[in-house]
């Protein structure tokens, strides 16, 4: 995976401010001049203005930026939950026109079904796909093992901690074996200690599965902990300010001088 990540930088840079289809052969996600305007009677909001960047196969990319810069809007456009006003998103060369099982989603507010047990939550996408027994249960068990929740398979969401709920969310998103994992501030509501544990887990899942990950956060340290590259966004209108390669070996230590320098660099780009 390291090889892919290193080589991906040139593609990303070449593509960050222009539409460059020639470089798309290894690109998993191409965000191509995406503009999103929300219009209401009262006001017009340019949530995204000509946003372009690419994500390579197997790459971990974080989107950071201040509140209101369009992170969730971009996430929703990539997820196919929202159509862009202009421009498009391509996944493995295909224009996104709606949601699909090639993308697994994890949300900040968990989005678990309270009336379903942990294993029934994880099974949801598989049921939608028409997966039959015993394959379905086998896959659910596999996912629960991956996120360390085997013992809680019969528990209900209300019986779980925030961190555990988020792990169920990740297991559910990965159960249908999507090529891309999309996460919008998934660890925003858990405490700092749990968050660090979830970072380790997510990175280990990423290494095991080789998924392409797009992760939204406004926590700069979280982005530098996780990402191969960080897309720094700016608000009003929402746009790409800069794309920063994080050239630090994993596991990363927050106390490292280089780690701190990346955090400072990105914070000053955001204006923090
Ligand atoms: N459905 C909508 N209708 C109208 N305006 C919207 C809609 N969704 C988002 N916006 C506006 O678009 C802009 C970007 O919002 P968005 O939620 O994408 O920001 P964000 O970067 O995710 O912020 P946060 O860090 O607070 O989650 C904001 O000005 C917001 O008010
Ligand atoms: Mg948001």
From TrEMBL:
One of its GO terms (cellular component) is plasma membrane. Its EC number is 7.3.2.6. It is found in: Cell membrane. It catalyses: tungstate(in) + ATP + H2O = tungstate(out) + ADP + phosphate + H(+). One of its GO terms (molecular function) is ATP hydrolysis activity. Keywords: ATP-binding, Molybdenum, Nucleotide-binding, Transport. Pfam families: ABC_tran. Residues 1-26 are annotated as: Disordered. SMART domains: AAA. Residues 1-10 have a biased composition (Polar residues). Residues 29-260 form the ABC transporter domain. Residues 12-26 have a biased composition (Basic and acidic residues). Its main location: membrane. InterPro entries: AAA+_ATPase, ABC_transporter-like_ATP-bd, ABC_transporter-like_CS, ABC_transporter_ATP-bind, P-loop_NTPase. The complex is composed of two ATP-binding proteins (WtpC), two transmembrane proteins (WtpB) and a solute-binding protein (WtpA). Belongs to the ABC transporter superfamily. Sulfate/tungstate importer (TC 3.A.1.6) family. Part of the ABC transporter complex WtpABC involved in molybdate/tungstate import. Responsible for energy coupling to the transport system. This is Molybdate/tungstate import ATP-binding protein WtpC. It comes from Haloquadratum walsbyi (strain DSM 16790 / HBSQ001). The lineage of its organism: Archaea, Methanobacteriati, Methanobacteriota, Stenosarchaea group, Halobacteria. The gene is ssuB.
């Amino acid at each position: 995976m390291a090889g892919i990540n290193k080589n991906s930088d040139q593609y990303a840079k070449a593509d960050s401010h222009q539409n460059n289809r020639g470089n798309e052969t290894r690109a998993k996600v191409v965000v191509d001049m995406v503009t999103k305007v929300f219009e209401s009677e009262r006001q017009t909001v340019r949530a995204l203005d000509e946003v372009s960047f690419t994500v390579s196969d197997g790459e971990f990319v974080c989107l950071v930026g201040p509140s209101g810069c369009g992170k969730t809007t971009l996430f929703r456009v990539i997820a196919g939950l929202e159509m862009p006003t202009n421009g498009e998103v391509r996944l493995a060369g295909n224009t996104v026109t709606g949601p699909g099982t090639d993308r697994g989603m994890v949300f900040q507010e968990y989005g678990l079904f309270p009336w379903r047990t942990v294993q029934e939550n994880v099974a949801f996408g598989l049921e939608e796909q028409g997966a039959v027994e015993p394959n379905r249960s086998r896959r659910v068990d596999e996912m629960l093992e991956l996120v360390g929740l085997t013992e809680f398979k019969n528990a209900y969401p209300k019986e779980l901690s925030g961190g555990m709920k988020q792990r169920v969310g990740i297991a559910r998103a990965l159960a249908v074996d999507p090529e891309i994992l999309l996460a919008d501030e998934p660890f925003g509501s858990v405490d700092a200690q749990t968050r660090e544990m979830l970072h380790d887990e997510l990175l280990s899942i990423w290494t095991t599965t080789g998924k392409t990950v797009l992760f939204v956060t406004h926590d700069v340290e979280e982005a530098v902990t996780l990402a191969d590259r960080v897309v720094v966004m700016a608000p009003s209108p929402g746009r790409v300010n800069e794309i920063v390669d994080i050239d630090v070996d994993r596991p990363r230590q927050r106390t490292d001088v280089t780690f701190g320098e990346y955090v400072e660099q990105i914070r000053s780009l955001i204006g923090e």
